[in-house]
Amino acid sequence: MEETKQKPLLLTVFQCADALNVSQWTVRRLLKTGALPTVRIGSRVLIKASDLNCFIDERTTSAVDHPTAPGLAAEGEMG
């Protein structure tokens, strides 16, 4: 029988930074401002994987949200 590897429930600052493709300092700033909630276990600062997913979902936009970004021509237009 195959073992399924369970994804971690809690992530370190390093793991969050890696997942977001940003520096650890950026993650620490997000934690300090409260933009990303923390879980403290002893002296460790951890982030729930579900909170990281919500953080990403809340900041995800589509072309409908921003049809033409400033400085960019809309599809079919010449700049």
What can you see in these coordinates?
This protein is of the alpha+beta class and 79 residues long. It has a domain at 10-58: Arc Repressor Mutant, subunit A. The protein is 35% helix and 13% strand. The chain has helices at residues 13-20, 24-33, 49-58, and strands at 10-11, 39-41, 44-48. The chain is extended. The N and C termini lie far apart (58 Å).
Q: What is the strand tally? A: 3
- H/E series, N to C? EHHEEH
As a percent range, the share of strand residues is 5-15%
Taking all Cα atoms into account, the compactness measure Rg is: 18 Å
- Briefly, what CATH class of the domain at 10-58? Mainly Alpha
Unreliable segments (pLDDT under 50, ≥5 consecutive)?
Answer: none
Q: How can the largest sheet be summarized?
A: 3 strands, antiparallel
Main sheet: strand order: 1-3-2
Rough shape?
Answer: extended
